TrEMBL record, chains A, B:
Its EC number is 2.7.1.29. InterPro entries: DhaK_1, DhaK_dom, Dihydroxyacetone_Kinase. One of its GO terms (molecular function) is ATP binding. This is Dihydroxyacetone kinase, DhaK subunit. It comes from Methylotenera versatilis (strain 301).
Length: 334, 334
């Protein structure tokens, strides 16, 4: 294992310290328990808090700021944060309109956010993201996994919260965006968790893992490496099939957001090639890609691979996707 | 070699097509010869054109837009673009105040941009970037190499050009920023050029290449892998020594911009850890880091590794760094 680290135990705090220093205008770091909040506390809004295991950067701390999150609770690498992190974060950002947790659907995250919620002295609600259509139930999950679509949920809910909308409206929008979103990922290599010091899974030079999770969990099947367009074709097919199963398939031309997400070690050049093919294929199925995001937004440490996420837009989602956002990893309109 | 590609010969056009589709509000793609221009042609300003071999994305096409480039000319992977690309790009973006080429100092790029410049029917000038302090002369270079500091040059010159400044002023600022900037990189792994199909260089699981170039060219020396802080310490030392040699060493507290750039396969978590240590070390040498950029801004395909760039700020550079920019890869203030 070759990584830019000093001691495995210190990675998280050293990295968070660098993040908070580089973005001191946006975020403030609190240690022990670890959480990050906006530098300038927002007032009179639902406070949006997310979190989860580290190693998926820029998720979630990179999305703290105007128009998105109020706080993020990072666990150790691929490890759920603990309830005291969420409680302290909630205490710090609560602004009289309640707390909304956005939680990716993994057993540990769900349990710890639930424990925190039960102890919260404020009005609260939770949006569980479960956009990964690759598998139902898996290593760490009952039900579908929450993956890159979480970024779209956080962006839209964060936008609505800035308008002063109430807790139930924020939760409803988050649930809607999650419902209208599907993702699937493919790994070309494993990731390496620093504390383990070796690859999470074995994969040969001619294999790919179709439907991989963002912790390197197994997907649908191990396949032989093929030309990109064939792999992308299967991913697009999986998403379309998921929409069909859930009766979301558009019968006429419908606008959609296409997110091509790198897992950490895939060059931008390849991500745009994937985007090019995926956009063409979705277009053949009545899906007009009117919003796009291409880059490393929900990573799996140093995994080579990518995921494709499609969100079926409506006027409300478009409005909240387009609205100003000012965070370390997403910024526009302000 | 596992990459998301179809045919090696088509990678560039497929990727550029995806890029242009995802960012159609910002860029327009022209094929054969290949170049990209702003979707909305700017008027009454010096037109800023950059280019170079592909594989360094988001450099340069990701920096087309308000406040930065007017056009970019991508060559094949790690291969210089040809003079007809620059000539056609210049023709497309010329706006009556002349053309400024920003060229990374590699023999092929320099020669081809010079050939284009000689044929240009417009007033023109060139800024050569040469921020890499690792080596003087190398595989493709006479003199120092142009690396990640090029982004800072493009940002500042692009900002000045938007004010209507003339060609000589733009060139002068570009030369100044380049002069006040130093970079050094370190590779943990090689990159793999698609057309070659194998790693550019061999490096073992316990070695790093200190001072590596962005095409995998040799740096200063092959070293044994060590804790991050030791590697970062040597990088910071190299930059300080370079400033000292060039009599740029600040004798009292001086503001600086710190860019920690990933080469393509290094997790953001590690880049922020590098930032944390580098910022601390520079602070010990009168350098106050008042501007920061951390991420993949000048990559080397799928290389694991990172570079550290320091730019000594003054009021003019700060003003042009802070000014609004709206490109695919850098966006703020607008």
């Amino acid at each position: 294992m070759k990584k830019f680290i000093n001691k495995v135990d210190n990675i998280l705090v050293e990295s968070l310290s660098g993040f908070a220093k580089a973005h001191h205008d946006l975020v403030e770091l609190h240690l022990d328990p670890n959480f990050l909040t906006r530098t300038n506390k927002a007032q009179n809004k639902v406070a949006i808090i997310s979190g989860g295991g580290s190693g998926h950067e820029p998720l979630h701390a990179g999305y703290i700021g105007y128009g998105m999150l109020d706080a993020a609770c990072p666990g150790h690498v691929f490890t759920s944060p603990t309830p005291d992190q969420m409680l302290m974060a909630a205490e710090a950002v609560h602004a009289d309109k309640g707390i909304l947790f956005i939680v990716k659907n993994y057993a540990g995250d769900v349990m710890n956010f639930e424990m925190a919620a039960e102890m919260l002295p404020f009005e609260h609600a939770t949006v569980l993201t479960s956009d990964d259509c690759a598998v139902v139930n898996s290593t760490y999950t009952t039900g579908r996994r929450g993956v890159a679509g979480t970024v779209i949920v956080e962006k839209c809910v964060g936008s609505l919260a800035e308008t002063g909308a109430d807790l139930q409206a924020c939760k409803a929008l988050g649930d809607k965006v999650n419902h209208r979103t599907a993702s699937i990922g493919v790994a070309l290599t494993s990731c390496t968790v620093p504390a383990a010091g070796r690859a999470t899974f074995d994969i040969s030079d001619t294999e790919i893992e179709m439907g991989v999770g963002i912790h390197g969990e197994p997907g649908r099947r191990r396949e032989t490496m093929r030309p990109a367009d064939e792999i992308i074709g299967d991913c697009v097919e999986a998403i379309l099939m998921d929409f069909k199963t859930r009766q979301l398939q558009p019968s006429k031309k419908h606008e959609a957001l296409l997110l091509v997400n790198g897992f950490g070690a895939t060059p931008l050049m390849e991500l745009y090639l994937i985007y090019n093919t995926a956009a063409k294929l979705f277009n053949l199925h009545n899906l007009e890609i009117s919003r796009s995001l291409v880059g490393n937004y929900t990573t799996a440490l140093d995994m080579a691979g990518a995921s494709i996420t499609l969100c079926l837009l409506d006027d409300e989602i478009k409005q909240h996707w387009d609205s100003p956002v000012h965070t370390a990893a997403l910024r526009w309109g302000k």
